[in-house]
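Recall from the previous lesson that a structure prediction takes nothing but the amino acid sequence as input. Here we apply that procedure to HD domain-containing protein from Octopus vulgaris. The sequence below is the only information supplied.
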Amino acid sequence: MIRHLNQQKAPPKVSERDILCVEIAGLCHDLGHAPFSHVFEGFINENRRTDNKWKHEDASCQMLDHLLKENPHVKEKIEPDEIAFIKRLIIGESGSDERQFLYQIINNASYNIDVDKWDYLARDSHFLGIGKSFDHERMIKMSRVIDNEICYRDKTVDDFYDMFYSRYRLHKTAYQHKTVLLFNKLLGEAFKSADKHLKIFEKVDDMKKFTYFTDSILEEILKNEDNDNLKEARNKLKDIIYRSYEHKRTVGDGNDQGKEPDKKKFCDASINYGAGEGNPLEKIPFYHKNDNKSFKYISSEEVKLEEMLLLPKKFCMNTRYYFQKESENPRKKMKANH
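The prediction returns the following tokens.
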């Protein structure tokens, strides 16, 4: 992406060292993800005893510092101001740097289109076996810098719609599938209980401990059968393993969740195209062929998105799922079925 933009006529040229920094930031921007990715990030912020919100991007910067400390032969090849530049790229904050477009490549806070999104949408679609319909290579080829921000050729609007639809489909079929939501809730409850004994949520503050903090934490909880401090957490994980809950869809408000909380679970899904209830296409800057000015379709009087695409009536769908714990011992049921 950065090399393509650097070949265009419009943007100010960036040096090979700057390009290297962008590439390093691309490699390191997700170092801060804990086990179970964004789900665990939510667990941390729900259980931390501080008002400061924990973000995996900040942890990525801390992990980068840790790696450079552990590998001084690498650190001596990178200038301090370059390290600071890499961190800003990871976080997506330009600071006093006038080259705003550089900060839209990896973590684009302006309109949420970046190579990180293309990467996970392509990878997850592939490994989930559902494929993808958008072509990020075409998007890169059709990108250029106008007024210091990355803009895209007007005819890529269909590709972007396909991209946002791919995001919606992944959330519906995988990320916010009802069974996934239930397992996430039980996992969070298990970690909250086990944290009293294993200090799980403190591991994100020590990069050395964080390095060895993997999903093996599940085995650590499950294998200690004689440890009563982990009994509640083990039971939560076993509810996941044995699928102790049966589900049904509901539109109720979940006010009765307080009654027998171990028997009933309510999980909420909010699935959208990436901009809440809004249309994310309206935020993207486009340009016409042979035109050095950018525009957004929301403000364009020439062509309306509704005339170009078959758009949904709404861009957000909210669903609540209700789960009831089975009264029968799941182990016995499994053996009977077997």
